[in-house]
Every structure is written in C-alpha cells, then in structure tokens.
Amino acid sequence: MGNVIAFNDIVSVADDSFSMSNGLTDVFIDYLLLSGSRLAKTESEKRMVVFLAEKQQTKVGMGNVGFDIVEMPWTSDTFETDKTFVLEMIHHARALSSEKSVWEKMGYEPGQKQLKYSLDSFEALIKRMTINDVDEDNYREWISAAEKDDPINLGFPRCTNHDVLLCLFGCKLCNDS
Ligand SMILES: [Zn+2]
User: Residue 117 pLDDT more than 90?
Assistant: First the structure.
C-alpha cells in the first residue's frame, strides 16, 4: 500500500516517481495545504491547492490518492506563474514543518526526515514540468467534473477553524481530526 506520485503515467523503477506510505501522504498533503492556502492569491493558484486538498484518503480510500504531475490543473496561460507558485508552496511547507506553533495547530509533530524526502521529490518533479507538458484536457476534465456547489465554483471558501481552502469533501484537516 501507499501512494505514488509520478511525472506522467509512464512509471518505471528507474525514473523519478516516488512513493509514500499512507501516513506520510497525509502529512505531505497537510503541509502543502497549509502552505498553499496561505500563499495562493490567484484563481489558478487556488485551483492547484484545491487539487491537492482533494487527496483525502478518508474520503477516497487509503492508498488511492497518488497522482501525476501532468494531471494537476495546469493551463498554458498561467503556467509560468503557477509553476513558481507550486515551488514556493513546497518551500514554505518545509519552513512550516519545523514550526512548533504549526505542530500544535495540526495536533501532531511531522516526521521531519520523511516529510523532507517527499517535498524534495515533489519539487524535482515540478521542476521538470514545462509548458510543453501542459495538456489542458486534464484541466478541463477536472473543472467540468466539479458540481455547482463545489468550492472551486463558489469563490474558494476557507475553513473557519483551519483557514485552509475547502474542496468538495470539505476541510481535510477537519475531516481527519
Ligand atoms: Zn478545518
């Protein structure tokens, strides 16, 4: 069991895809969600965060939240700024992971070494992404699957307890606590 994050659907043992235990996956998503929710300003940046917020194993099943980098909601128009944003989100997540006040807020202390491994691996995959890899069909598919009452169609509301962006499942941090 566990979750694999890969560049695209072509995964081999020698490539830079990486796998995480189910437990580490939750920590990884929690910190990106916290970081991304603080930093996201534009709609496309918020969409990136909500895409990650949907990776909730309590809702879609343990070991069911792996994804490909190219599946994220990239568009050609905003590609460069969104890529910069995702790299900043990873960077800020690293910083948050060593803050005691954040551990208290989250209710647990993350395993620093494991979290660093997953953030570093994710960063390497994001750095590999170029505008030529953008397939807007993935974006359109994700957007068109969203119901009218999906937070991405309601101006990106936030959890009043955790101040993180909500997704169709609600707040990941509330759901997990
Ligand atoms: Zn919450």
Answer: yes
Average pLDDT, the chain: 95
Task: Give the distance (Å) from ligand 1 centre to CA of residue 85.
Answer: 23
Q: Helix or strand or coil: residue 158? A: strand
Sign of CA dihedral 146, 91, 119, 109: negative
CA of 30 to the centre of ligand 1 (A): 11
Residues with Cβ–ion distance below 5 A, ligand 1: 159, 161-162, 171, 173-174
Beta strands in the chain (DSSP E): 3-6, 18-20, 67-68
Residue 135 pLDDT exceeds 90: yes
At residue 85, φ and ψ (nearest 5 deg) are -60, -45
Rounded distance from Cα 57 to ligand 1 centre (Å): 16
State the average pLDDT over residues 7-19: 84
- Residues contacting 105, CB < 8 A, separation 6+: 162
Residue 171 one-letter amino acid: C
d(CA 137, CA 143): 10
In DSSP terms, 167 is beta-bridged to 170
In angstroms, the CA 177 to CA 175 distance is: 6
- pTM of the prediction? 0.95
- Range 19-40 average pLDDT: 97
Maximal CA-CA distance, the chain: 43
